[in-house]
Amino acid sequence: MKKMKLVVVGNGMAGMRTVEELLKIAPDIYDITVFGDEPYPNYNRIMLSPVLANEQTIDDIILNSREWYAENNIALYTNARINKIDRKNRVVYAEDGTSAEYDRLLIATGSKPFMLPIPGRELKGVLGYRDIKDTNDMIETAKTHKHAVVIGGGLLGLEAANGLKIQGMDVTVVHRNEWLLDRQLDKTAGLMLKKNLESKGLKFLLETNTEQLIGDEEGRVKAVRFTNGMELPADLVVMAVGIRPNFELAKSAGIHCDRGIVVNDTMQTFDPRIYAVGECVSHRGISYGLVAPLFEMAKVCATHLANFGIGLYKGSVTSTKLKVTGIDLFSAGEFEGGEDTEEIVLHDAVGGVYKKLVIKNDKIIGSVLYGDTADGSWYFQMLRDSKPIHEIRDYLMFGQDSLGNTGHQGQDKAAAMTNEMEVCGCNGVCKGTIVKAIQDKGLFTIDDVKKQTKAGSSCGSCVGLVEQILASTLGGGYAPPSTSKAICGCSDKNHEEVRAEIRTHKYLNIPDAIKGMQWRTPNGCATCRPALNYYLISTWPHEAVDDPQSRFINERVHANIQKDGTYSVVPRMYGGVTTPDQLRKIADVADKYAVPMVKVTGGQRIDLLGVKKEDLLDMWKDLDMPSGYAYSKGIRTVKTCVGSEFCRFGTQNSTQMGIDIEKAFDHMWAPHKVKFAVSGCPRNCAESGIKDVGIIGVDSGWEIYVGGNGGIKTEVAQFLCKVKTHEEVLEYSGAFIQIYREEARYLDRTVHWLERVGLDYVKQRVVDDAEGRKAAYERLLYALQGAVNPWAERVEKRDQYKEFETVSV
Description:
Blueprint: E1 4-9, H1 13-25, E2 30-35, H2 48-52, H3 66-71, E3 74-77, E4 82-86, E5 91-94, E6 99-101, E7 104-107, E8 111-113, E9 126-127, H4 132-144, E10 147-151, H5 155-166, E11 170-175, H6 187-199, E12 203-206, E13 210-215, E14 221-226, E15 231-233, E16 236-239, E17 243-245, H7 248-252, E18 261-263, E19 274-276, E20 281-283, H8 291-305, E21 319-324, E22 327-333, E23 342-348, E24 353-360, E25 363-370, H9 376-385, H10 413-416, E26 422-424, E27 429-430, H11 431-441, H12 446-453, H13 463-474, E28 486-488, E29 491-494, H14 495-505, H15 510-516, H16 528-539, H17 553-557, E30 560-561, E31 567-569, H18 580-592, E32 597-600, E33 606-611, H19 616-623, E34 635-640, H20 654-664, E35 674-679, E36 693-698, E37 701-706, E38 718-723, H21 726-743, H22 750-757, H23 759-768, H24 770-784, H25 790-796
Parallel strand pairs: 1-2, 1-7, 2-3, 7-19, 9-16, 10-11, 10-16, 11-12, 18-20, 34-35, 35-36
Antiparallel strand pairs: 4-5, 5-6, 8-17, 13-14, 14-15, 21-22, 22-25, 23-24, 24-25, 26-27, 28-29, 30-31, 31-33, 32-33, 36-37, 37-38
Helix pairs in contact: 1-8, 11-13, 14-16, 19-25, 21-23, 21-24
């Protein structure tokens, strides 16, 4: 049977969700062609703000990769704006001359930002906030300019303001109404939000209207003038004052439009061959800008494109679950109340929690939650179901878990949710979709669920709920990720408990620790002894006894054992910088000891491979260079680029910064290997984005990234903060490493520790707590005082290391 041709105009979330739903139920009915006017495949527009805030990258928010289109035999045209629909001949035409015939056409052209009709809106530096280009433009502007004004105190405006603040700009939000997020929050919650955001450095002008944007001689915005006569300097103006359905293409083709593309309950337009979904449509006089209604439209539309002839979209009762700069918010229904309504309110100003339920005729008709949104889905379901609340009224404000106090069955939130209730707001995934995927595809882990359903894969706020659903669906077959795994078979204590015992009882050697913690085996084992040794010396530096026999072979002999029993020797070259004298020494040593291979490492050092154990001490003596610690659970190299000293793109002296870091943290032991890199500009030639600590020079200072890993599973480092000075780089990165040294489990890389404790925890300890940060940095410097180079020490005292050459693996 010959396939029909489906053309989709619009490569955004609504259009591609329709295609995804269609592929599930009728994968072979169409040859599909998709046109998108951006250069990217389908991405999560909701997650642009984390990109602006350096929390994610563009790659992180891609929903469907180009490989996905190819795997599903979908022809994708990017950078292809359709400018004509020939309904008579059923052909669409792009601006570049590309055309495509259709049997069915799906229009999903979305919306566009509304730009205030005021003088100066055409100036350079004035933009909306709607796509990746806008996001990149803001990031680039922040590198060279200082003052930003965001017009609009809605969600987009606040996310733009937060991101620009993180990028280093001085940001003022201008809002014409009395409080922020006035469409989602009542006055109390809106003012709580303002106070919290002001504590983070944002500024606000409320009940203020913009009159004009003022430009300089080069046509760039330089100030904003308000109707009250006040002026504010502005190098960048972001208009986030609303969106408008993008329906001009449909209108030009003669399709009936009225403040959007008018569709019926099957998402069909005036032309029965043409459907429309998303923010571009007007359904029963309403245009929706939230993701959940768009995905509901997509599901209905897919059933009709598949010729199933079932399903009607009758509009959406919407709720809004937001996370604004780390603050959880939720609202639904008529939260401002009105005649014949009553309110139940819980307001904890100190604790930052506010809850309001609006009741009418014994039913919830609206709610606002600030700070604690855990029960938002429960309240929303009662609102949608018009469920009477008189039996549980006394317990409503204390959440669903409190129902156990009433004789109702107390159960976790996931088990109590209906299949229709939404779990993941970012991707519009309901509980039933997750349950079905778990059952049909045999899923057992959070990562499996993320991959198959996208639930939990964006902002991550719903991961806990997803795990509950996984556990309740699998029942006894679910094995949660272990957070309390015993250190080994010698004890029931986990790593955290062992650390606590060492700290509490001040154990200073392994025998005392084993005895005091009542190990099952009197001497421990090869698993627990290296961990115990590290925990002792990291908890009590200069006091605890370092036991060489409780270290792995590489650390015992200070060289990296190879598969043939020989060793590799990597001398330290600070920052990757060497001298002709060092190179001559290395060449002479390589000749003298007949080294089989001399290789440049990925960390910009020279590796002498194939060295016999009996030659190590003599080779170290001849080299007369420090150990590169290439064998250690500790600091390895600090990779650098050329930086501003020689590179024409360099903004900072990355080479010197790398040398200073390497010298400051030299001889540092850690739970696992620790790698640094310093790049002199955002081109990132030193690969700072996949290091435990990556530092990138920008015009105004340094950006610090943490938790990267270039190993078996490459992990991109996460943005920690931006600092201005050389000294701050050392202090912030040193504090991060010291907290990792003190709290991570032995053999955990920084990425694994971060996964467990969360980036927010690290930011709170390192960025927000200045006193704690300085104390952590000082503890690190104290621990490193008096450290000696092990190669030189063993050469000098070689008579004390007679057993050195007979150490067994």
